[in-house]
Amino acid sequence: MDLTFSQEELAFRDEVRGFIRENLPADIRAKAGRVPYFEKADVVTWHRILDARGWAASHWPKEYGGPGWTAVQRYIFMEELLRVPTPEPLSFNINMVGPVIYTFGSEAQKAHFLPKIRSLDYWFCQGFSEPGAGSDLASLRTTARRDGDEYVINGQKTWTSTAHVADWMFCLVRTDPSAKKQEGISFVLIDMKTPGITVRPIITIDGHHHTNEVFLDDVRVPLANRIGAENKGWDYAKFLLGNERTGIARVGLSQSRLTRAVELAGTSTGHEPSLLQDASFRKKIIEAEIELKALEITAMRIIDRQRKRNDGHPDPASSILKLRGAETQQASAQLALDAAGPLAAPAGGHFPAGASAIDSPFVDADGAASVYLSSRAASIYGGASEVQKNIIAKTILGL
Fold first, then answer.
1. CB 127 within 8 A of CB 153
2. CA quadruple 75, 80, 84, 87: dihedral, nearest 10
3. Which of 79, 130, 244, 296 is catalytic?
4. Are 60 and 94 within 8 A, CB to CB?
5. Model confidence over 96-110: pLDDT tens digits?
6. Residue 133 gets which letter from DSSP?
7. Measured between alpha carbons, how far is 394 from 228 in angstroms, rounded to an integer?
8. Measured between alpha carbons, how far is 83 from 339 in angstroms, rounded to an integer?
9. Region 357-378: what's the mean pLDDT?
10. What is d(CA 139, CA 174) in angstroms, rounded to the nearest whole number?
11. Bridge-partner residues for 220, per DSSP?
12. Are 219 and 195 in contact (CB under 8 A)?
């Protein structure tokens, strides 16, 4: 088993690092690691810089505008983005709906949507989860009734990230209410400007507006916007979720948070020794580094298997990466929060007596609390940790 990069792969990593160093705008770099979510304008700007280089759709086939990279190159590319971290190419577009369209869509759908998805002229959101249908997604109740050459859609979606800024939504709807719950579901694309759509914000514990409720009341969608066959949407959803978990270990992101934790811990207020001089805190950092290295080795093992198999299908062992990756992201965010201490108060918070956001040497700690709070969701999105444990038990351990 080869767990090292070849000379060609190391050269590729240097190329990616150099490109990021030379092309990431300074104002976006200044926000790196200090905000839980980049603003839409930042995502669009960096996404289009990558697209101009041919790198936005890193795992798409060349025929649809991808670079045709190997699994190792894709891993290197994403980890280098996360180590900064930069805004990621919009996952809803690149990892989710794009592959569904180029795999199952019609030629007309490919011609219309794929260039706009790749360039981010269309920003997609994901209309999957509903009240009472999250991890048990097949229990969704949003209905789509045929009326001529249109569907009339009624229902509710929830936890819909970026719906308030999205142009389109890819959505699961129930087109055959009498079928078993995994059957009778279709996959449709909905223009968010369509009458009957109401988006209401959900402000999460980190204080940010990232997720939403979406209500669909007699929303008319052309039948031409259905991807693939009617009542086969569950198959497409499973395919999509497999792509969603690609790169979910996010080793680079955890590494960037650990680096920041060390930087913050090494800063002294002038009144007391720095936290980095505390043996117990150094022990936590070392333990986190060991866990992160173990995760990276596991990721490389899975990539090595994919490289040898080369069939394009997700490895069931990716559930291990999702589970441990989420835990490592949360642990590294916790260490950054601990290092920042009381000066990690979110915007509008209170600084201790005698300190302020202007004169404190911890001013760069702003955002640590928001990043920590947003990291709690890592064990839910992309498949809850409990679901990943079930997958590991059944498909890997054979229990």
1. no
2. -60
3. 244
4. yes
5. 999 999 999 999 999
6. B
7. 30
8. 19
9. 63
10. 10
11. 152
12. yes
Radius of gyration for the chain, computed over Cα atoms and rounded to the nearest angstrom: 22
Residue type, 207: G
Could you say which DSSP state residue 378 is in? G
Q: What is the pLDDT of residue 166?
A: 98
**pTM value?**
0.84
Beta partners for residue 199, in sequence order: 214
Q: Is 126:187 a contact under the CB 8 Å cutoff?
A: no
CA distance linking residue 41 with residue 43, whole number of Å: 6
Residue among 169, 213, 224 at smallest CA distance from 193? 169
Paired sense of beta strands 168-174 and 185-191, if any: antiparallel
Length of the chain: 399
Domains of the chain, earliest start first: 7-89 (no CATH), 124-229 (2.40.110.10), 245-396 (1.20.140.10)
205 is written with which tokens?
């514990």
Give me the amino acid identity at 250. Answer: R
Higher pLDDT: 317 or 256? It is 256
**80 among known catalytic residues:** no
Rounded distance between C-alpha atoms, residue 251 and residue 389, angstroms = 20
User: What is the residue whose two structure tokens read 């988006």?
Assistant: 199
Instruction: Check residue 197 and report its DSSP letter.
Output: E
The overall longest dimension of the chain from CA atoms, in Å, is 74
Cβ–Cβ < 8 Å for 24, 86:
yes
Report which of 117, 139, 15, 145 is spatially closest to residue 69, judged by C-alpha positions.
Answer: 15
Question: Considering only 59-68, 134-143, 154-163, which range has the smallest mean pLDDT?
Answer: 134-143
Secondary structure letter of residue 97 according to DSSP: I
Mean pLDDT over 59-83 rounds to 91
| Distances from the Cα of 195 to the Cα of 27, 189, 198, angstroms | 37, 14, 9
For the segment 314-338, what is each residue's pLDDT rounded down to a tens digit? 667 778 888 888 899 999 999 988 8
Q: Is 291 left (phi over 0), alpha (psi -120 to 50) or beta?
A: alpha
**Whole-angstrom Cα distance, residue 209 to residue 203?**
5
The pLDDT tens digits of the residues spanning 203-220 come to 888 777 899 999 999 999
